Amino acid sequence: MNGICCPNCGSGKIKKNGHIHNAKQNHRCRDCGRQFVLNPTNKDISDETKKLIKRALLERISLRGICRIFEVSLTWLLNFIGSVYTKLPDDLNLQTVENDSGVILCRLESEVDEMWSFVGKKSNKQWIWLALDVTTRQVIAFHVGDRSKESSRALWDKIPRRYRKNANFYTDLLDSYEDVVPKNQHKPSPKGSGKTNHIERFNCTVRQRVSRLVRKALSFSKKLNNHIGAIKYFICHYNLEKRVALQV
Fold it and tell me: Are 155 and 214 within one domain?
C-alpha cells in the first residue's frame, strides 16, 4: 500500500483501519494484525487534564466519550485508569463512627443489599454486594460475585471487625444471608418495611453515576477487574465526600 510497511513484521500488506482520536489515519497489517499510524507523535497529558479525567470517571460518561472530550487515546486512558484503581485504599476511605467522647458506639446499624450487573454479556451476571452504615451513609464493604452464600460470606469477611461484633444488619429476605450473619444481629426486612431505604437509594445513585452500571447501555465493562475497579473508585470518592460532610 503506497510503500507503507508494518513496523512490526515489515509486511507491505497494509489496509486502512479507521482513524484514531486525533483524526489521523490508522492502518492495520493483514499479516500480523499490528495497528499503527504514520509519523506518530506522543502527546503529553498535563496534570490538570488528568485531574479532570479523574472527575469525569465519577460521572455517567463512557470511556470513549472521555477520549473525545480530552483528546486522549483509549489505550492511554485504559492504562491511566488501571494505575488509578491500583492506588485505591482497601478501607474505602471509611471513617470510624464515634461519639463525643471518642468511644465507638456500642450498637451500630448497617443495611445490606445486592445489585445486579454484568461483564461482557448479560448472561455473565455479576452481583454487587454492598453494606452501608446507617448513621454516616458510608459504604463499609462491597463484594462482586454471584448471588450465593459464598458471596455473602465474602462480603461478611470484608466488613470491618467492629461492625461484625457490634452492628445490627438489615437485609432483604435472601436465603444467602442465613448462617452467615449471626442470628442475634441479622434483621431480615421485607420490601416496604423501610429498613433498607438508605442502601436502595445508594444503589440508585451508583447506577446513575457509574456508566458501567447503566441498564441498556453500551458502556458496560468488558473485564471483571475494571468493573470492580470502577465501582471501588466511586465508593472511595463517595465515602470521602461523606467524611468531609461529617467533619463540618
Answer: yes
